[in-house]
Amino acid sequence: MKKTIEELRGMNLKDLYTEKMNLSIGSRVDVNGHKGKLKYIGIVQGYNGEWIGIDWDDPMRGKHNGTVNGVKYFEARCPTSGSFVRPIYACSGRDLVEEINSRYAEGNVDKSSNDSSENFLAASLPAINIGIKKCEYVGMEKTYLKQCNIYRLNVIVLDNMCVSHVSPHQTSKFIHCTELNLHNNLITTWTNVFDILRLFPSLRYLNLCKNLLEPLGDISILDLSDLPSIFHLILSDCQMNEKTVTSILRIFNQVTELHISRTGITSFDPPDNCFLRHLNISENPIEDFSRLWSLSQLKSLEILNAAGCNFQTFDLPPNEVGFEKLSNLIIDDNSFTQWSDINQLSRLPSLKRLKLRGNMTEQNRMDIREIIIAKMPLLVELDRCDISSIERRSSEIRFINRFGLEPIDEVHRKDVERLVAKHGPPDPPVEQNLATARQKIPTVQIKLRYEDKKIERSVPEVTTIQRLIGLASRILKFDPSEVKIEICRNEPEDSTLG
Protein backbone atom coordinates (compact mmCIF):
# COMPACT_ATOMS: atom_id res chain seq x y z
CA MET A 1 0.00 0.00 0.00
CA LYS A 2 1.50 3.32 -1.06
CA LYS A 3 1.92 6.06 1.51
CA THR A 4 0.74 9.62 0.98
CA ILE A 5 3.12 12.60 0.90
CA GLU A 6 1.88 13.61 4.34
CA GLU A 7 2.62 10.14 5.71
CA LEU A 8 6.10 10.13 4.21
CA ARG A 9 6.83 13.57 5.63
CA GLY A 10 5.76 12.34 9.05
CA MET A 11 8.25 9.44 8.93
CA ASN A 12 11.75 9.89 10.29
CA LEU A 13 14.77 8.89 8.22
CA LYS A 14 15.15 5.49 9.89
CA ASP A 15 11.53 4.55 9.18
CA LEU A 16 11.78 5.85 5.62
CA TYR A 17 14.88 3.81 4.75
CA THR A 18 13.45 0.76 6.49
CA GLU A 19 10.28 1.11 4.42
CA LYS A 20 11.81 1.91 1.04
CA MET A 21 15.29 0.34 1.06
CA ASN A 22 15.02 -2.32 3.74
CA LEU A 23 17.80 -0.59 5.69
CA SER A 24 17.67 -0.83 9.45
CA ILE A 25 20.11 -0.44 12.32
CA GLY A 26 22.00 -3.66 12.88
CA SER A 27 21.38 -5.09 9.41
CA ARG A 28 24.14 -6.35 7.15
CA VAL A 29 24.85 -4.26 4.04
CA ASP A 30 27.04 -4.40 0.97
CA VAL A 31 28.64 -1.38 -0.69
CA ASN A 32 30.51 -2.12 -3.91
CA GLY A 33 31.47 -5.59 -2.71
CA HIS A 34 32.48 -4.55 0.81
CA LYS A 35 30.39 -5.91 3.69
CA GLY A 36 29.61 -4.33 7.03
CA LYS A 37 27.04 -3.70 9.74
CA LEU A 38 24.75 -0.68 9.54
CA LYS A 39 25.11 1.33 12.77
CA TYR A 40 23.60 4.75 12.02
CA ILE A 41 20.99 6.43 9.78
CA GLY A 42 20.65 10.23 9.70
CA ILE A 43 22.43 13.50 9.08
CA VAL A 44 26.09 14.28 9.71
CA GLN A 45 26.94 17.78 10.90
CA GLY A 46 28.78 19.79 8.29
CA TYR A 47 27.64 17.58 5.37
CA ASN A 48 24.52 17.86 3.25
CA GLY A 49 21.90 15.16 2.90
CA GLU A 50 21.38 11.84 4.64
CA TRP A 51 24.06 9.31 5.49
CA ILE A 52 24.36 5.82 6.87
CA GLY A 53 27.18 4.79 9.19
CA ILE A 54 28.78 1.40 8.57
CA ASP A 55 31.13 -0.65 10.70
CA TRP A 56 33.05 -2.59 8.04
CA ASP A 57 34.11 -6.22 8.34
CA ASP A 58 37.55 -5.12 7.14
CA PRO A 59 38.96 -3.04 10.04
CA MET A 60 41.11 -1.02 7.61
CA ARG A 61 38.26 -0.20 5.23
CA GLY A 62 36.93 2.85 7.12
CA LYS A 63 38.31 6.20 8.20
CA HIS A 64 37.25 6.58 11.84
CA ASN A 65 35.61 4.84 14.82
CA GLY A 66 32.16 6.40 14.38
CA THR A 67 33.16 9.85 15.66
CA VAL A 68 33.45 12.76 13.20
CA ASN A 69 34.51 16.29 14.18
CA GLY A 70 34.05 15.47 17.84
CA VAL A 71 30.51 14.10 17.43
CA LYS A 72 29.96 10.42 18.18
CA TYR A 73 27.37 8.90 15.83
CA PHE A 74 28.06 5.22 16.49
CA GLU A 75 30.73 2.99 17.98
CA ALA A 76 32.86 0.96 15.59
CA ARG A 77 34.81 -2.17 16.50
CA CYS A 78 38.17 -0.70 15.48
CA PRO A 79 39.68 2.80 15.18
CA THR A 80 39.46 2.68 11.38
CA SER A 81 36.53 0.34 10.67
CA GLY A 82 33.80 3.00 10.50
CA SER A 83 32.73 5.36 7.72
CA PHE A 84 29.67 7.11 6.24
CA VAL A 85 28.20 6.46 2.79
CA ARG A 86 25.12 7.58 0.93
CA PRO A 87 22.15 5.23 1.42
CA ILE A 88 21.68 4.85 -2.32
CA TYR A 89 24.93 2.86 -2.58
CA ALA A 90 23.99 0.31 0.11
CA CYS A 91 22.42 -3.06 -0.59
CA SER A 92 20.74 -4.87 2.29
CA GLY A 93 20.31 -8.17 0.44
CA ARG A 94 18.73 -9.76 -2.61
CA ASP A 95 16.76 -12.89 -3.40
CA LEU A 96 18.75 -16.07 -4.07
CA VAL A 97 17.19 -16.81 -7.46
CA GLU A 98 17.65 -13.18 -8.51
CA GLU A 99 21.38 -13.46 -7.79
CA ILE A 100 21.67 -16.81 -9.57
CA ASN A 101 20.08 -15.29 -12.67
CA SER A 102 22.36 -12.28 -12.34
CA ARG A 103 25.48 -14.45 -12.41
CA TYR A 104 24.47 -17.22 -14.80
CA ALA A 105 21.58 -16.08 -16.97
CA GLU A 106 21.71 -12.28 -17.28
CA GLY A 107 21.83 -11.20 -20.94
CA ASN A 108 21.29 -14.75 -22.18
CA VAL A 109 20.21 -15.62 -25.69
CA ASP A 110 16.55 -15.90 -26.45
CA LYS A 111 15.88 -19.48 -25.42
CA SER A 112 12.45 -19.35 -27.07
CA SER A 113 14.10 -19.24 -30.48
CA ASN A 114 14.19 -22.47 -32.48
CA ASP A 115 17.44 -21.49 -34.20
CA SER A 116 20.22 -23.47 -32.52
CA SER A 117 22.86 -22.99 -35.18
CA GLU A 118 26.35 -22.07 -34.05
CA ASN A 119 26.20 -18.84 -36.03
CA PHE A 120 23.05 -17.76 -34.18
CA LEU A 121 24.51 -18.73 -30.81
CA ALA A 122 27.80 -16.94 -31.46
CA ALA A 123 25.97 -13.81 -32.59
CA SER A 124 23.79 -13.86 -29.47
CA LEU A 125 26.56 -14.18 -26.88
CA PRO A 126 27.25 -10.89 -25.14
CA ALA A 127 30.71 -9.33 -25.42
CA ILE A 128 32.65 -8.40 -22.31
CA ASN A 129 35.05 -5.55 -21.76
CA ILE A 130 38.49 -6.10 -20.23
CA GLY A 131 39.96 -2.67 -19.76
CA ILE A 132 39.52 -0.82 -23.04
CA LYS A 133 39.37 -3.99 -25.11
CA LYS A 134 36.16 -5.76 -26.08
CA CYS A 135 36.34 -9.56 -25.90
CA GLU A 136 33.95 -12.08 -27.38
CA TYR A 137 33.20 -15.67 -26.41
CA VAL A 138 34.71 -18.22 -28.79
CA GLY A 139 33.70 -21.87 -28.68
CA MET A 140 31.57 -21.33 -25.54
CA GLU A 141 28.15 -21.55 -27.17
CA LYS A 142 27.07 -24.92 -25.76
CA THR A 143 28.47 -24.23 -22.30
CA TYR A 144 26.84 -20.82 -22.21
CA LEU A 145 23.45 -22.21 -23.21
CA LYS A 146 23.73 -24.93 -20.59
CA GLN A 147 24.32 -22.31 -17.90
CA CYS A 148 21.30 -20.35 -19.10
CA ASN A 149 19.03 -22.97 -17.59
CA ILE A 150 19.87 -22.33 -13.95
CA TYR A 151 17.78 -25.27 -12.78
CA ARG A 152 20.09 -27.73 -14.52
CA LEU A 153 23.30 -26.45 -12.92
CA ASN A 154 25.33 -28.97 -10.92
CA VAL A 155 27.46 -26.37 -9.16
CA ILE A 156 26.32 -22.86 -8.22
CA VAL A 157 28.91 -20.32 -7.06
CA LEU A 158 27.57 -17.04 -5.64
CA ASP A 159 30.60 -15.88 -3.67
CA ASN A 160 30.86 -12.18 -2.76
CA MET A 161 27.31 -11.37 -3.82
CA CYS A 162 24.31 -10.07 -1.86
CA VAL A 163 22.14 -13.14 -1.19
CA SER A 164 20.15 -12.71 2.02
CA HIS A 165 16.97 -14.75 1.56
CA VAL A 166 14.77 -16.65 -0.84
CA SER A 167 11.28 -15.62 -1.85
CA PRO A 168 8.51 -17.56 -0.08
CA HIS A 169 6.82 -17.87 -3.49
CA GLN A 170 9.77 -19.75 -5.00
CA THR A 171 8.69 -23.33 -5.67
CA SER A 172 11.03 -24.51 -8.45
CA LYS A 173 13.92 -26.54 -7.06
CA PHE A 174 17.50 -27.00 -8.16
CA ILE A 175 17.38 -30.77 -8.22
CA HIS A 176 20.68 -31.18 -10.09
CA CYS A 177 22.81 -28.95 -7.88
CA THR A 178 25.16 -30.77 -5.48
CA GLU A 179 27.47 -27.84 -4.57
CA LEU A 180 26.40 -24.37 -3.40
CA ASN A 181 28.92 -21.64 -2.59
CA LEU A 182 27.46 -18.66 -0.68
CA HIS A 183 30.77 -17.34 0.61
CA ASN A 184 30.63 -13.72 1.86
CA ASN A 185 26.97 -12.90 1.30
CA LEU A 186 24.38 -11.19 3.54
CA ILE A 187 22.61 -14.14 5.16
CA THR A 188 22.08 -13.45 8.87
CA THR A 189 19.59 -16.05 10.16
CA TRP A 190 19.53 -19.83 10.12
CA THR A 191 15.85 -19.69 9.16
CA ASN A 192 16.89 -18.12 5.86
CA VAL A 193 19.60 -20.77 5.46
CA PHE A 194 17.06 -23.58 5.92
CA ASP A 195 14.62 -21.93 3.47
CA ILE A 196 17.38 -21.79 0.87
CA LEU A 197 18.43 -25.40 1.43
CA ARG A 198 14.92 -26.69 0.80
CA LEU A 199 15.38 -25.67 -2.82
CA PHE A 200 18.43 -27.98 -3.15
CA PRO A 201 17.32 -31.55 -2.39
CA SER A 202 20.53 -33.08 -3.85
CA LEU A 203 22.98 -30.73 -2.14
CA ARG A 204 26.11 -32.27 -0.60
CA TYR A 205 28.52 -29.31 -0.33
CA LEU A 206 27.60 -25.99 1.32
CA ASN A 207 29.88 -22.98 1.86
CA LEU A 208 28.49 -20.28 4.19
CA CYS A 209 31.85 -18.73 5.09
CA LYS A 210 31.73 -15.03 6.10
CA ASN A 211 27.97 -14.90 6.58
CA LEU A 212 27.60 -13.48 10.10
CA LEU A 213 24.81 -15.72 11.33
CA GLU A 214 22.82 -15.15 14.51
CA PRO A 215 23.09 -17.82 17.23
CA LEU A 216 20.87 -20.81 16.72
CA GLY A 217 18.23 -21.21 19.44
CA ASP A 218 16.14 -24.20 20.41
CA ILE A 219 16.12 -26.45 17.34
CA SER A 220 13.16 -28.46 18.65
CA ILE A 221 10.79 -25.66 17.64
CA LEU A 222 12.22 -25.26 14.12
CA ASP A 223 10.84 -26.78 10.95
CA LEU A 224 13.74 -28.94 9.80
CA SER A 225 11.83 -31.01 7.27
CA ASP A 226 13.03 -31.54 3.71
CA LEU A 227 16.61 -30.48 4.42
CA PRO A 228 19.29 -32.09 2.19
CA SER A 229 22.02 -34.41 3.45
CA ILE A 230 25.08 -32.16 3.70
CA PHE A 231 28.46 -33.92 3.85
CA HIS A 232 30.87 -30.98 3.43
CA LEU A 233 30.03 -27.84 5.45
CA ILE A 234 32.08 -24.61 5.66
CA LEU A 235 31.12 -22.16 8.43
CA SER A 236 34.41 -20.30 8.95
CA ASP A 237 34.26 -16.59 9.89
CA CYS A 238 30.59 -16.88 10.89
CA GLN A 239 30.99 -15.75 14.54
CA MET A 240 29.18 -18.72 16.08
CA ASN A 241 29.10 -20.01 19.64
CA GLU A 242 29.70 -23.57 20.84
CA LYS A 243 25.99 -24.31 21.27
CA THR A 244 25.25 -23.32 17.68
CA VAL A 245 28.02 -25.55 16.32
CA THR A 246 26.73 -28.54 18.28
CA SER A 247 23.15 -27.89 17.15
CA ILE A 248 24.22 -27.66 13.52
CA LEU A 249 25.91 -31.07 13.78
CA ARG A 250 22.70 -32.49 15.22
CA ILE A 251 20.71 -31.08 12.32
CA PHE A 252 23.21 -32.17 9.66
CA ASN A 253 24.28 -35.39 11.33
CA GLN A 254 25.80 -36.79 8.13
CA VAL A 255 28.50 -34.13 7.88
CA THR A 256 31.94 -35.71 7.43
CA GLU A 257 33.96 -32.53 6.77
CA LEU A 258 33.44 -29.39 8.86
CA HIS A 259 35.33 -26.07 8.71
CA ILE A 260 34.70 -23.69 11.64
CA SER A 261 37.92 -21.65 11.76
CA ARG A 262 37.84 -18.09 13.12
CA THR A 263 34.36 -18.42 14.59
CA GLY A 264 35.37 -17.40 18.13
CA ILE A 265 34.58 -20.68 19.87
CA THR A 266 36.69 -21.70 22.88
CA SER A 267 35.79 -25.39 23.01
CA PHE A 268 34.15 -28.08 20.92
CA ASP A 269 31.82 -30.83 22.08
CA PRO A 270 30.38 -32.84 19.18
CA PRO A 271 27.14 -34.80 19.62
CA ASP A 272 27.22 -38.56 20.02
CA ASN A 273 25.91 -39.34 16.54
CA CYS A 274 28.75 -37.49 14.85
CA PHE A 275 30.64 -38.93 11.87
CA LEU A 276 33.26 -36.23 11.32
CA ARG A 277 36.25 -37.37 9.32
CA HIS A 278 37.86 -33.96 8.71
CA LEU A 279 37.62 -31.07 11.21
CA ASN A 280 39.14 -27.61 10.73
CA ILE A 281 38.96 -25.66 13.99
CA SER A 282 41.99 -23.43 13.38
CA GLU A 283 42.51 -19.86 14.64
CA ASN A 284 40.00 -20.09 17.47
CA PRO A 285 40.96 -18.96 21.02
CA ILE A 286 40.80 -22.47 22.50
CA GLU A 287 44.16 -22.13 24.34
CA ASP A 288 44.01 -25.51 26.12
CA PHE A 289 43.97 -28.75 24.12
CA SER A 290 42.09 -30.48 26.94
CA ARG A 291 39.02 -28.55 25.75
CA LEU A 292 39.12 -30.76 22.66
CA TRP A 293 39.42 -34.08 24.49
CA SER A 294 35.86 -34.94 23.50
CA LEU A 295 37.19 -35.37 19.95
CA SER A 296 39.20 -38.37 21.11
CA GLN A 297 36.01 -40.43 21.13
CA LEU A 298 35.17 -39.76 17.48
CA LYS A 299 35.77 -43.11 15.81
CA SER A 300 35.99 -41.68 12.28
CA LEU A 301 38.13 -38.55 12.79
CA GLU A 302 41.19 -38.74 10.50
CA ILE A 303 42.21 -35.10 9.90
CA LEU A 304 42.32 -32.35 12.55
CA ASN A 305 43.45 -28.78 11.87
CA ALA A 306 44.01 -26.89 15.13
CA ALA A 307 46.59 -24.38 13.92
CA GLY A 308 46.81 -21.00 15.61
CA CYS A 309 44.64 -21.90 18.62
CA ASN A 310 47.08 -20.43 21.19
CA PHE A 311 47.94 -23.81 22.74
CA GLN A 312 50.67 -23.46 25.36
CA THR A 313 50.97 -27.20 25.91
CA PHE A 314 49.72 -30.36 24.23
CA ASP A 315 48.25 -32.86 26.67
CA LEU A 316 46.28 -35.97 25.76
CA PRO A 317 43.86 -37.80 28.07
CA PRO A 318 45.98 -39.44 30.79
CA ASN A 319 44.59 -42.96 30.50
CA GLU A 320 42.95 -43.88 27.22
CA VAL A 321 44.36 -41.69 24.43
CA GLY A 322 41.56 -42.19 21.90
CA PHE A 323 41.90 -40.60 18.47
CA GLU A 324 41.96 -44.09 16.99
CA LYS A 325 42.03 -43.03 13.32
CA LEU A 326 43.67 -39.60 13.56
CA SER A 327 46.40 -39.81 10.93
CA ASN A 328 46.82 -36.14 9.92
CA LEU A 329 47.32 -33.39 12.54
CA ILE A 330 47.95 -29.69 11.84
CA ILE A 331 48.97 -27.69 14.93
CA ASP A 332 51.44 -25.14 13.60
CA ASP A 333 51.60 -21.53 14.85
CA ASN A 334 50.88 -22.43 18.46
CA SER A 335 53.22 -21.92 21.43
CA PHE A 336 54.69 -25.34 22.18
CA THR A 337 58.12 -25.01 23.78
CA GLN A 338 58.62 -28.28 25.68
CA TRP A 339 59.78 -31.58 24.25
CA SER A 340 57.30 -33.26 26.58
CA ASP A 341 54.61 -31.99 24.18
CA ILE A 342 56.24 -34.02 21.39
CA ASN A 343 56.23 -37.02 23.73
CA GLN A 344 52.46 -36.56 24.03
CA LEU A 345 52.08 -36.40 20.25
CA SER A 346 53.94 -39.67 19.91
CA ARG A 347 51.17 -41.34 21.93
CA LEU A 348 48.68 -40.88 19.08
CA PRO A 349 48.29 -44.42 17.74
CA SER A 350 47.71 -43.64 14.03
CA LEU A 351 49.45 -40.30 13.48
CA LYS A 352 51.45 -40.32 10.23
CA ARG A 353 51.34 -36.72 9.03
CA LEU A 354 52.17 -33.78 11.26
CA LYS A 355 52.40 -30.06 10.57
CA LEU A 356 54.14 -28.27 13.43
CA ARG A 357 55.84 -25.16 12.04
CA GLY A 358 56.18 -22.19 14.39
CA ASN A 359 56.82 -24.31 17.51
CA MET A 360 59.86 -25.62 19.42
CA THR A 361 63.52 -24.60 19.23
CA GLU A 362 66.62 -26.61 18.39
CA GLN A 363 68.49 -28.42 21.18
CA ASN A 364 72.06 -29.73 21.46
CA ARG A 365 72.88 -28.26 18.06
CA MET A 366 70.39 -30.67 16.46
CA ASP A 367 67.74 -29.56 13.98
CA ILE A 368 64.13 -29.54 15.23
CA ARG A 369 62.97 -31.69 12.33
CA GLU A 370 65.55 -34.38 13.12
CA ILE A 371 64.55 -34.51 16.80
CA ILE A 372 60.84 -34.82 15.98
CA ILE A 373 61.50 -37.57 13.43
CA ALA A 374 63.59 -39.49 15.96
CA LYS A 375 60.97 -39.17 18.70
CA MET A 376 57.97 -40.10 16.52
CA PRO A 377 58.60 -43.45 14.80
CA LEU A 378 55.25 -43.60 12.96
CA LEU A 379 55.60 -40.32 11.04
CA VAL A 380 55.89 -40.50 7.26
CA GLU A 381 55.44 -36.75 6.62
CA LEU A 382 56.50 -33.69 8.62
CA ASP A 383 55.58 -30.13 7.65
CA ARG A 384 54.42 -31.29 4.20
CA CYS A 385 57.74 -33.02 3.43
CA ASP A 386 58.07 -36.79 3.16
CA ILE A 387 60.39 -38.59 5.55
CA SER A 388 62.63 -41.00 3.66
CA SER A 389 64.15 -44.11 5.23
CA ILE A 390 67.60 -42.51 4.89
CA GLU A 391 66.49 -39.34 6.69
CA ARG A 392 64.88 -41.35 9.47
CA ARG A 393 67.96 -43.50 10.06
CA SER A 394 70.23 -40.44 10.02
CA SER A 395 67.97 -38.55 12.45
CA GLU A 396 67.74 -41.48 14.86
CA ILE A 397 71.51 -42.05 14.94
CA ARG A 398 72.22 -38.34 15.43
CA PHE A 399 69.63 -38.30 18.22
CA ILE A 400 71.41 -41.19 20.00
CA ASN A 401 74.76 -39.42 19.71
CA ARG A 402 73.39 -36.07 20.90
CA PHE A 403 71.15 -37.23 23.73
CA GLY A 404 72.33 -40.77 24.55
CA LEU A 405 75.34 -39.89 26.73
CA GLU A 406 75.01 -39.60 30.48
CA PRO A 407 73.45 -37.69 32.06
CA ILE A 408 70.42 -38.39 29.85
CA ASP A 409 67.59 -35.83 29.94
CA GLU A 410 64.49 -37.58 31.32
CA VAL A 411 62.32 -36.09 28.57
CA HIS A 412 64.36 -38.09 26.04
CA ARG A 413 65.20 -41.22 28.06
CA LYS A 414 62.51 -43.52 26.61
CA ASP A 415 63.39 -42.48 23.07
CA VAL A 416 67.09 -43.04 23.70
CA GLU A 417 66.43 -46.54 25.08
CA ARG A 418 64.22 -47.40 22.11
CA LEU A 419 66.74 -46.16 19.56
CA VAL A 420 69.76 -47.72 21.29
CA ALA A 421 67.98 -51.07 21.09
CA LYS A 422 67.55 -50.43 17.36
CA HIS A 423 70.90 -48.88 16.36
CA GLY A 424 73.27 -49.57 19.22
CA PRO A 425 74.96 -47.28 21.78
CA PRO A 426 76.10 -43.73 21.03
CA ASP A 427 79.54 -42.97 19.68
CA PRO A 428 82.18 -41.79 22.21
CA PRO A 429 82.53 -38.02 22.67
CA VAL A 430 84.50 -36.15 20.04
CA GLU A 431 87.31 -35.32 22.51
CA GLN A 432 87.78 -39.00 23.28
CA ASN A 433 87.84 -39.83 19.58
CA LEU A 434 90.51 -37.23 18.96
CA ALA A 435 92.67 -38.52 21.79
CA THR A 436 92.32 -42.06 20.48
CA ALA A 437 93.16 -40.92 16.97
CA ARG A 438 96.29 -39.13 18.19
CA GLN A 439 97.45 -42.27 19.96
CA LYS A 440 97.24 -44.23 16.71
CA ILE A 441 99.41 -41.81 14.68
CA PRO A 442 103.10 -42.88 14.52
CA THR A 443 105.37 -40.12 15.76
CA VAL A 444 109.09 -39.33 15.86
CA GLN A 445 111.06 -37.37 18.43
CA ILE A 446 113.05 -34.46 17.06
CA LYS A 447 115.84 -32.53 18.78
CA LEU A 448 116.62 -28.95 17.73
CA ARG A 449 120.00 -27.57 18.90
CA TYR A 450 121.51 -24.13 18.46
CA GLU A 451 124.42 -22.96 20.61
CA ASP A 452 123.24 -23.62 24.18
CA LYS A 453 119.59 -24.06 23.19
CA LYS A 454 118.04 -27.50 22.83
CA ILE A 455 114.35 -28.26 22.15
CA GLU A 456 112.60 -31.62 21.74
CA ARG A 457 109.30 -32.14 19.91
CA SER A 458 107.10 -35.08 18.88
CA VAL A 459 105.82 -34.75 15.34
CA PRO A 460 103.96 -37.14 13.00
CA GLU A 461 106.21 -39.58 11.24
CA VAL A 462 105.02 -38.31 7.86
CA THR A 463 106.38 -34.82 8.53
CA THR A 464 108.73 -33.73 5.74
CA ILE A 465 112.29 -32.43 6.25
CA GLN A 466 111.26 -29.08 4.82
CA ARG A 467 108.52 -28.70 7.46
CA LEU A 468 111.01 -29.66 10.20
CA ILE A 469 113.47 -27.04 9.02
CA GLY A 470 110.70 -24.45 8.94
CA LEU A 471 109.66 -25.42 12.46
CA ALA A 472 113.25 -25.09 13.73
CA SER A 473 113.78 -21.68 12.12
CA ARG A 474 110.62 -20.32 13.74
CA ILE A 475 111.38 -21.66 17.20
CA LEU A 476 115.12 -20.90 17.37
CA LYS A 477 114.89 -17.77 15.25
CA PHE A 478 117.95 -18.03 13.00
CA ASP A 479 118.96 -19.15 9.57
CA PRO A 480 117.57 -22.69 9.03
CA SER A 481 120.75 -23.70 7.17
CA GLU A 482 122.58 -23.71 10.55
CA VAL A 483 120.19 -26.27 12.07
CA LYS A 484 121.35 -29.85 12.63
CA ILE A 485 118.52 -32.41 12.65
CA GLU A 486 118.69 -35.84 14.29
CA ILE A 487 115.78 -38.29 13.90
CA CYS A 488 115.06 -41.21 16.23
CA ARG A 489 112.11 -43.57 15.86
CA ASN A 490 109.87 -44.36 18.83
CA GLU A 491 110.69 -48.08 18.88
CA PRO A 492 110.38 -50.68 21.67
CA GLU A 493 113.44 -50.81 23.93
CA ASP A 494 114.70 -54.10 22.49
CA SER A 495 114.72 -52.84 18.92
CA THR A 496 117.78 -51.47 17.19
CA LEU A 497 118.22 -48.63 14.77
CA GLY A 498 118.71 -49.41 11.12
From TrEMBL:
SUPFAM superfamilies in UniProt: Cap-Gly domain (SSF74924), L domain-like (SSF52058)
Keyword Cell membrane attributed: no
Main localization category: cytoplasm
Annotated ranges, domain CAP-Gly: 42-86
Classification via Pfam families: CAP_GLY
PROSITE patterns the UniProt entry points to: CAP_GLY_1 (PS00845), CAP_GLY_2 (PS50245), LRR (PS51450)
Subcellular location: Cytoplasm
GO cellular component entries: cytoplasm; extracellular matrix; extracellular space
InterPro entries attached to this UniProt entry: CAP-Gly_dom_sf, CAP-Gly_domain, Dev_Immune_Receptor, Leu-rich_rpt, LRR_dom_sf
Subunit structure, as described in the record: Supercomplex made of cofactors A to E. Cofactors A and D function by capturing and stabilizing tubulin in a quasi-native conformation. Cofactor E binds to the cofactor D-tubulin complex; interaction with cofactor C then causes the release of tubulin polypeptides that are committed to the native state.
Family: Belongs to the TBCE family.
Name of the protein this chain belongs to: Tubulin-specific chaperone E
Lineage: Eukaryota, Metazoa, Ecdysozoa, Nematoda, Chromadorea
